[in-house]
């Protein structure tokens, strides 16, 4: 009896060992033909058909706009600083005259957007500012030298023309920033940190951002799509791949993206583009006044009912405003029947007027109102004196 029990125990042990080995090395032998196989769970998804996008994918928008976004390489010659020791008589006595370091070339990197098949490229002014050589690289690897057609520092925009006869992939402009709403999905395309063309996704966080102190004329789209150094001048596109803005600036304490980026809306960019292509510059109206915001304290002292309007704090002698009779202390409340909300709004309204035309200014003076006809002048080259 004991012998039979030993034989049974050995048989069970061998059987368990065989099952263990098979389950480890060839598990499919044990599962073959059994219902509820796990093979279906491990199957890879069916391959995507070319041209087809997955749900919630923005691949089609990216593919449509990527060829139109370019890398802008700039270089300029700068004079190296002369070391102070070279001017020290004692140093020169022992070591003799030393030549200056001479000139050196510095390089910069940004992005741009092809806006016409014949090679016009829209980018930021700060990307190409002071550059004496500009080269543009396309998404397909082609490189072309570029010349500066014109620039507008007050909106931080510039237009380049590529030196080529080839037909280039131009981006499609959206119908206007008016169609854009807070919460819309947008894609930012550019060359951040020089790593290569990159697409980031976010939403429109706000519209009409002003008073940021970035440029004279501000009307920014705010987005949380990641924008980093090198993205400047790149495209902000909608989910159809249409251009809605030009990436321009970020708010950052570290130099990288914190989710607060700003883009110039396509409506403003298009206006600047068309003027520069037509004449090489942007022409704006000007009347020659210094303005300041009306605070509640100023409104009370001037006897105003509210803080709307722009306080004239100075008038340039001989300017259109001076000739029309505008005085310091006047409060501008309307231009050609359009109410002036604040100094920024006044600046935009005056800039939109054509030089040479006559505009009607409504002002408050000594608790009364008067209307003056002002012959609008041409806005001079940007200065830092605050005159509008």
UniProtKB/TrEMBL annotation:
Pfam families according to UniProt: PDZ_2 (PF13180), Trypsin_2 (PF13365)
CDD domains noted in UniProt: cpPDZ1_DegP-like (cd10839)
Molecular function via GO: serine-type endopeptidase activity
Keyword Repeat applies: yes
Keywords in alphabetical order: Hydrolase, Protease, Repeat, Serine protease, Signal
Domain PDZ: 276-342
One GO biological process term: proteolysis
Active site: 126 (charge relay system), 156 (charge relay system), 232 (charge relay system)
Listed SMART domains: PDZ
Enzyme class: hydrolase
Gene3D superfamilies recorded: 2.30.42.10, 2.40.10.120
Coiled-coil boundaries: none
EC number of this enzyme: 3.4.21.-
Residues annotated for substrate binding in this entry: 126, 156, 230-232
PANTHER family, per the entry: PEPTIDASE S12, PROTEASE DO-LIKE 8, CHLOROPLASTIC
Similarity comment: Belongs to the peptidase S1C family.
Name of this chain's protein: Probable serine protease AlgW
Originating organism: Azoarcus sp. (strain BH72)
